[in-house]
Amino acid sequence: MTNSPTPRIDRMMGYYSATMGHEREARILLQATSFGAVVSVYTATAVAAALALTGSGAWGAVLLVLSSIPSFAIYFYAERHGVQVDKLLSKGTLGQLVWPHVIMGVMVAALLFGIVFHLTTGQPVIPVPDITQGLADNFSRDGTTPLSRGLFSGGAVALIPIVWAIVSVRRTKTQNPDPADIPDED
């Protein structure tokens, strides 16, 4: 699409490249991306509520604001293309409209309750042990083994998605291409 109102975003996301596949693959990929965005927003909101309930309300509030960025991006992109998201959402069933708001409302209420409770009483709703003393012990001369073990374990866990991505790319490159994907020579 050459006259897109968002050509830079379209190019960056590769919407009109071969990576999107055919119509069915592109639709499934965009649905999967949408699902991932929704899951990330709900997960970030749940973590923000947990932070607030354990006495870290300021970090929870920051995370809540950051988790709203995908929603703003969706509205921005759709509006630039002349699609009114609110109008589309109003066509949903009552269950489709109510349950997401109820779930999000409960999590935001927990976040606000945790912040207000902590500010008024000085104590978190759910007390958690102070891990800073454990970290200080790990940096001591005699306690370096747990720190190095933790760094090694964390690095190994971080390598799992990297190795998985490399194997996945290699597997797809070694597969024979689908005849429908080969362009005609005219």
Q: How does this model look, in words?
A:
With about 190 residues, the chain is an all-alpha fold. About 70% of the residues lie in helices and about 0% in strands.
Mean pLDDT across every amino acid position: 80
Q: Please state the overall shape, judged from the principal axes of the Cα atoms.
A: flat
The structural class is mainly alpha
Radius of gyration: 23 Å
Strand content: under 5%
- What is the string of SSEs from the N terminus onward? HHHHHHHH
Q: The biggest beta sheet, please?
A: none
Question: How far is the N terminus from the C terminus?
Answer: 23 Å
Low-confidence stretches: none
Tally of individual helices: 8
Short synopsis of the structure:
This protein has helices at residues 7-13, 23-53, 57-67, 69-80, 85-89, 94-121, 132-138, 144-174. With 186 residues, it is mainly alpha-helical.
What topology does this entry show?
Blueprint: H1 7-13, H2 23-53, H3 57-67, H4 69-80, H5 85-89, H6 94-121, H7 132-138, H8 144-174
Helix pairs in contact: 2-3, 2-6, 3-6
Key traits:
186 residues; mainly alpha; 8 helices
